[in-house]
Design a protein that fits this description.
The protein is of the alpha/beta class. It contains 17 helices and 11 strands. The radius of gyration is 26 Å and the shape is elongated.
Amino acid sequence: MALSERPRPLDGITVVSLEHAVAAPFCTRQLADLGARVIKVERPGSGDFARCYDQRVNGQSSHFTWINRSKESLALDVKQPQAKQALLALLASADVLVQNLAPGAAARMGLSYEALKAHNPRLIVCDISGYGSDGPYRDKKAYDLLIQSEAGFLSVTGTPETPSKSGISVADIAAGMYAYTNILSALLLRGKTGEGSHIDVSMLEAMGEWMGYPLYYAYDGAPPPPRTGASHASIYPYGPFVAGDGKTVMLGLQNEREWKAFCDTVLQQPAVATDARFDSNAQRNAHREALQALILQTFAALTAAQVVERLEAAGIANARVNDMADLWQHPQLQARQRWRTVGTPAGEVPALLPPGVNSAFDYRMDPIPAVGQHNASILAELGWSAEQIAALAAA
């Protein structure tokens, strides 16, 4: 049997999601990748506001294109009684509800775990918020950059002069990942107990987990790791260095054996290895500026390709500092055949397969829906007549 014909882990699982922006859609797209049916409930007309963040992908948003494939779009104004009735009917037989509405909004609509459990005790409800369902910060607005700030991420990222945010929505992604893994765990648990559960995922707590290293580095009042740009905070040389052709090479040394090889083969100055300023990582870290000047002086006579050639010969870890154009064309992704195409309302676009090659099944890579594209089919499944569906659309 071909991989594409084999069952996926979440075939037969139905997920209803009241989602927008990044955290919840990232979670549910990964559930869809594994075969789950994801019904995305959107505002009629405009839909998820992330659809309009930009127009970079054939007139569509880059964020939305990334995290909304393989879903069905159901456009409902849940403040209308008929639409609310349709949503509750869906949830009566669904396996999972995911929501990242404003704090308390789902509960005010009667969509709390406690309210829904009475009608569907097997339902798993996952609430994603900035700060969690209780505590003094519960009702505080939470955007990705704000959570990066609250979690201390900016204090360890950037240069000594300038704190910097992550170039991606790292707090949203962290929350989406923990929602995803918690839902998988809850499905396994339900297989043992027969009962659903409530999951409360906080962006702050997700980022708090990812900040574990700097937290413990600053344990018991110790100084936190310094901001060092793209260089390592405590190991040197470990970071970006410019070659003579203006291109940048990232390299990293881990031990004294590699330091000697670096001096012998890359710098071609064996005496530097025993220079008192550089003969241990602590000394190299303390004399960063002097060592950086020495390395850059050597690299100035070389192209980036020549630097990489020497680093490879010495067995020193290295990488190119790629931009997005380089990543699109990355030879390793092409060699491993990681690119597929997915349909969108504006035509097909390339998409990376999810991480993790599994020998038992193929990931689902179905189209990105237009707003309300599946209203008629989903409502018909609930027993609605064509007249009722038309009346809801008109309303």
